[in-house]
Design goal:
The protein is α+β, with helices and mostly antiparallel strands. It folds into 2 domains: 79 residues, Gyrase A, domain 2; 152 residues, Beta Barrel (Cyclophilin), CATH 2.40.100. The strands form 3 sheets. The protein has a 7-stranded mixed β-barrel with strand order 5-12-9-10-7-6-13. A 4-stranded antiparallel beta sheet has the order 1-2-4-3, covered by helices on one side. A two-stranded antiparallel sheet has the order 8-11. The chain starts with a strand and ends in an 8-residue tail after the last strand.
């Protein structure tokens, strides 16, 4: 059974497990969709929003507009009856410049796994990653699916500044830093795409939980051209969407 935990006086967290895996995340996303359906039916009075994570979903509410205990009972019932979601979000094929200045940890990660840098790039490019959650900073996607042979711990000393749009891995996870920030994940490459645009009020973050992502290796010349298009506002997101029934680009 899901666990219900208070988060201050204005939120409830519903936990569905204690691991990072597709089955648990499917229950989280199923619950999130159940919440959306309940809201559309006129329920969830006083609820402001909900935030799905790897294994839980936190529901924020206005304590002046909602009865916390009554909402807790409603959330228990919805969580118990929520199906595991098999629905995938959007699909993306994102260009990445691997190695060199864009990916300074690629060679070390390859050597640690007894692989060549080219083999690491091939494994990254042939893997479908799933966005489990956004966190750490606006638009930062935590993605599962990293091949086990590419798993490495974080850097012993984090970098003071990771360049914006850097593709990084640690443990079993993969991510892209939307903006420059400190960070200790291993940097393998960089994308020319903007991951978070606050001017896009409807959808400022490129990715959402449930999305699937693959990487398309590109060379330095292509990266520079696409980065220039992005700076000029001509690199549109939909260009990198993959239709639901279409095969992944090879």
């Amino acid at each position: 059974m899901p666990r219900l935990l208070p988060l201050g006086d204005a939120a409830w967290t519903v936990e569905f497990g204690d691991g990072i895996d597709l089955a648990t995340h499917g229950r989280v996303m199923g619950f999130a969709r159940t919440l959306q359906a309940a809201r559309e039916d006129g329920g969830l009075s006083g609820v402001i929003e909900w935030v799905p994570t790897f294994r839980s979903c936190t529901v924020y509410f206005d304590p002046l507009a909602a009865d916390a205990d009554a909402l807790a009972e409603q959330l228990r019932e919805l969580a118990a009856g929520a199906p595991q979601s098999a629905v995938t979000g959007r699909r993306w094929c994102i260009p990445i410049l691997f190695g060199g200045e864009a990916g300074p940890d690629l060679a070390e990660l390859a050597a640690a796994g007894g692989l060549s840098p080219e083999a690491v790039v091939e494994k990254m490019a042939s893997t479908v990653f799933r966005v489990y959650m956004l966190g750490f900073m606006p638009g930062f996607p935590y993605m599962g699916g990293l091949p086990a042979e590419l798993a490495m711990p974080r850097l012993a000393t984090p970098r003071l500044e990771v360049p914006a749009r850097s593709l990084a891995v640690t443990g079993e996870l993969c991510a892209i830093y939307p903006v420059a920030s400190p960070g200790g994940w291993r940097l393998l490459g960089r994308t020319p795409l903007t991951l978070f645009d606050p001017r896009d009020v409807a959808a400022p973050a490129l990715f959402s939980p449930g999305d699937e992502v693959m990487w398309q290796p590109i060379d330095a010349e292509s990266f520079a051209r696409l980065e220039q298009e992005a700076a000029q506002g001509r690199l549109y997101r939909d260009r990198f969407r993959v239709a639901p029934e279409a095969p992944w680009p090879s």
